[in-house]
Amino acid sequence: MARHTCWGCGLAVVLALLATPLLAHHSFGAEYDANRPITLTGVVTKIEWTNPHSFFYMDVKDEKGNVANWKFEGYGPGVLYRTGWTKNITMKPGDTITVFGWRARDGTNWAHSREVTLPSGKKLFFGPPAGTGDGGNTPAVEVR
Length: 144
What we know:
It contains 3 helices and 6 strands; from the N terminus they run ααβββαβββ. With 144 residues, the protein is of the alpha+beta class. Strands 1-2-3-5-4 form a 5-stranded mixed β-barrel.
């Protein structure tokens, strides 16, 4: 029995698999507002070391004692390891931390993280700078 190989079908499958992570990727300016910096202190509730971005969640108390859970986005695991992070050691659920970043454009409890101050006082970057990623604070898209 002759075996038939469809190169076009195989190529389509490979391209679809390669494109899948790109669908989840977005620019800073599309999701976050460089004009809305935020610094919050709270207790870490969950950490997700995922690609292309990692996330951590933190319970933050307001001035009235109400608790809100915030989601912070940052680098993927490879970059975190290279910049000094160790999974399940550097930061763990239950740790009280302070994070600086920028709020989401939609006004929810979601932010792009930049710098995390750990319980020891040590500061590490969890995400890139605002804007185009080159260190400036110019949004990647025009803001009106």
